[in-house]
Every structure is written in structure tokens, then in C-alpha cells.
UniProtKB/TrEMBL annotation:
Taxonomic source organism: Streptomyces mangrovisoli
InterPro entries: Beta-lactam-related, Beta-lactam/transpept-like, Diverse_Enzym_Activities
Protein name: Peptidase S12 family protein
Keywords for the protein's UniProt record, in alphabetical order: Hydrolase
GO MF annotations, alphabetized: hydrolase activity
Record domain Beta-lactamase-related: where: 27-334
Pfam families listed in its UniProt record: Beta-lactamase
Keyword Hydrolase: yes
UniProt key word Mitochondrion: no
Top-level taxon of origin: Bacteria
Gene3D superfamilies noted in UniProt: DD-peptidase/beta-lactamase superfamily (3.40.710.10)
Length: 342
């Protein structure tokens, strides 16, 4: 294990303060550490204007957006594979309730959906299905594909399908399945929304000037249409819980338990993304598979480095600042660089 140094923590603090000063986010929390040390909790700024001068802390609840993919759907898919309920290279339609007729998108494999190489339509507008007379899994499977499988393009609808797969295979709603998963990992505050507005919950975006912000409800429109419970987005968590999840992954990787074995499998790049980065199963992988990470649109990130036993959880509500969300890039770049060069 490679402990974080005083210099590491100072750089994180300076960069977090810098992006807040730049107007990228009202505030944020970083929790980092290894399995051999107590977590380091770094905070700065405020939760929001609505919550007053209250600073965020490790238990401030954030909409984690697409981190839902790797915190909820990915581990549950791994469990279904381990239990023999699912085959990685089988068409996804085989794991869903049966229906007749052609289903071009339903021919995508579970591996392709996990690695964003399915060729499914990238634009996901579930509002177009309002009033349809068929279930959602059938509507999604019947969609034409945009391109031949194998090319990387980030696609939310694949994880929506995987969430429906899990509900069908286990016979329980996704929020029930994740509740058991998260509590077992020590993630006592993590849940699917909506959650009540309050000073512990970070608001996100104001869609129309002069109207209330989204606060305690899923920022993602498609997740909201699914009642806030979806395979691609909709979960709320804290920096402390994300760190607990990272430690669970690192322990599993070290001990070789089923979740750790699934992580090892998922760290193998399936397709290149850009120089030095590839897409594994769910995760982005860097440093030849030594580091895995994922971002959430709202301003969250999670990094794990099984090679040196380190993790970094970043929780912000940068989408609160609209287009300024992109200005948290220095913080994300520093986190990745720190794990890749240690």
C-alpha cells in the first residue's frame, strides 16, 4: 500500500479551492486513502446558496449521476454472472422477458453494453416512449443500432437495459437489490432518490431562471422518468460512502473474492478510448489496467488503484454552476495523475 503524502493532500486542497474560486462548484469533498490508513477527508466551500454558509462534509449527500453505473449496476451484473444467471457474451434480449420479432439492439451482448461498444443509439430520450403499448425493455431492444458493434461510444441506454435485466433475473426492484449491496459494503447513506430537500442534500441545476433548483431528485431526465431508479443514473451517495465502496473493491481485489475477481476481469481494456486510456467493463482503465475510474455528470468521480491500494472519491455538485462544470477538470486530472504516478 502506498500512503498519501502531506504533499498529495496539499495539492488536492489547493486544487479543490482553486476550482471553487474559479466558479466551477460551490464546494466539494475529497476522501482518499488506502486499506492501511484512516481516510483523509478534505472539504472546501459551501454546499449551496440555498443551504447557506454550511460547508460540505463526508456525509453530505450528492446526486452521483453516472457513478450509478459502477456503484450499482456493474457490481450487480458481476454477481449475476458469478451466480450463473447471465452470460457475458450472450445477447441481452436472452436475459429479458421474451417477446417476438426482430430486436436489433437486443442482439448487443452484455459485454458490449458494459463497455459502451454495443452500437446502440447514443441519444436516449425515454420521453419518446410515452403512451407506448409495449414494455420498456422491448421498446429499447427493437430500436435500430447506430453503428456496428465494436466502436466505443458512451451510451446510457445500455445501462438502462442492464438495470432492467437485473430486475428481471432477480425478481426484485433495482433499489431493493442495491440496498442490500450498499449496506453490505458499509454504505449506509447511499440510496436511490428522490430524497427530501434539506441542508444535508446538495442541490444541482436550475433549469429555468427564477424557478427552484433540482434538489433531492435525479438530475438525469431519463432516470427521473423511471422514478429516479435506473441502471445508468439516479443514485445519491456521500464521499464517505464512495470511499467505503472503494475500500470494498480494493479488499476484494486483494483477497480474490467474487467482487474482486469481477474487478480484475473488468480492468482488462475492451477497446481504446484515447492514448493511455481504455474502456474496461464499466470502468475507464489507465496505466495498463492499474487504475480504474468513472465520472458522474453532476461533478462526482471515483478512482481505485488496486496496484498500489489507493482510492480517491470526489463529491461535488458542479452542475449547480451550469457550464462551469467543465472547470472541475483540473481536480479530476490531478486525481488520475496522482494514482497513475504513485
Amino acid at each position: 500500500m502506498t500512503p498519501f503524502t502531506t504533499d498529495d493532500l496539499a495539492r488536492f486542497t489547493d486544487t479543490l479551492n482553486g476550482v471553487i474560486t474559479d466558479g466551477a462548484t460551490p464546494g466539494g469533498v475529497i476522501v482518499c486513502g488506502t486499506l492501511d490508513e484512516e481516510p483523509h477527508v478534505l472539504t472546501a466551500g459551501v454546499i449551496s446558496e440555498e443551504t447557506g454558509p454550511l460547508p460540505p462534509n463526508g456525509r453530505t449527500l450528492y446526486d452521483i449521476a453516472s457513478l450509478t453505473k459502477v456503484v450499482a449496476t456493474w457490481p450487480l451484473i458481476g454477481s449475476a454472472l458469478s451466480d450463473g444467471l447471465l452470460e457475458l457474451d450472450a445477447p441481452v434480449r436472452e436475459a429479458l422477458p421474451p417477446f417476438a420479432g426482430e430486436a436489433p439492439s437486443g442482439e448487443a451482448t452484455v459485454r458490449q453494453l458494459l463497455s459502451h461498444t454495443s452500437g446502440l443509439r447514443a441519444s436516449t430520450r425515454l420521453d419518446h416512449y410515452r403512451g407506448a403499448d409495449a414494455p420498456l425493455h422491448e421498446l429499447l431492444c427493437r430500436e435500430p443500432v447506430d453503428r456496428a458493434p465494436g466502436t466505443h461510444q458512451y451510451i446510457n441506454r445500455g445501462y438502462i437495459l442492464l438495470g432492467l435485466v437485473l430486475t428481471h433475473l432477480r425478481g426484485r426492484p433495482l433499489d431493493v437489490l442495491t440496498h442490500d449491496l450498499w449496506r453490505a459494503a458499509g454504505m449506509d447513506d447511499t440510496l436511490y432518490g428522490p430524497v427530501g430537500r434539506g441542508p444535508r442534500v446538495a442541490p444541482t441545476e436550475q433549469r429555468i431562471p427564477g424557478t427552484p433548483r433540482i434538489w433531492g431528485a435525479a438530475h438525469d431526465d431519463n432516470a427521473a422518468l423511471l422514478g429516479g431508479i435506473a441502471g445508468h443514473a439516479g443514485a445519491f451517495s456521500t464521499a464517505a460512502d464512495l470511499a467505503a465502496y472503494a475500500r470494498r473493491l480494493l479488499r476484494g481485489h486483494r483477497d480474490g473474492d467474487p467482487l474482486g475477481q469481477w474487478l480484475r476481469t473488468s480492468l482488462v481494456p475492451q477497446v481504446p478510448m484515447e492514448p493511455g486510456l481504455g474502456r474496461g467493463l464499466g470502468w475507464i482503465v489507465a496505466a495498463d489496467g492499474a487504475v480504474a475510474y468513472h465520472h458522474g455528470w453532476t461533478g462526482t468521480s471515483l478512482y481505485v488503484a488496486p496496484a498500489n491500494g489507493r482510492y480517491i472519491a470526489v463529491a461535488t455538485n458542479a452542475v449547480y454552476c451550469g457550464a462551469a462544470r467543465t472547470r472541475i477538470a483540473p481536480l479530476r486530472e490531478l486525481a488520475l495523475k496522482t494514482l497513475c504516478t504513485s
